[in-house]
Design brief:
Largest sheet: 2 strands, antiparallel
Strand content: 15-25%
Shape: elongated
Number of strands: 4
Oligomer: single chain
Structural class: alpha+beta
Distance between the termini: 38 Å
Strand order of the largest sheet: 1-2
Number of helices: 2
Helix content: 25-40%
Radius of gyration: 21 Å
Length: about 80
């Protein structure tokens, strides 16, 4: 991932690696990566991470709301 400023967002950078045997490989450019459960995007904003956390939270909330019909409330709120 190449980190860019928000003003220069549209600049393209091509990185090629040449092996000893002469073959050339280009590296795929990513917009965001996941590192230690944190989503980091190329302009170092939090938009990608916030949407990732919201989706994860929404999914877990849905599971808990479905389980409330089958388990007593004290089991759902108990912290181990």
């Amino acid at each position: 991932m190449i980190v860019k400023s928000q003003r220069r967002k549209n600049t393209n950078v091509n990185i090629n690696i040449t092996n000893r045997d002469g073959s050339c490989h280009s590296i795929e450019q990513k917009d965001h990566i996941k590192y230690l459960e944190t989503m980091i995007d190329s302009s170092l904003t939090w938009k990608c991470h916030i949407s990732y956390v919201c989706a994860k939270f929404s999914r877990n909330t849905g599971v808990i709301s479905k389980l409330r019909h089958y388990l007593p409330l004290k089991h759902l709120t108990q912290i181990n």
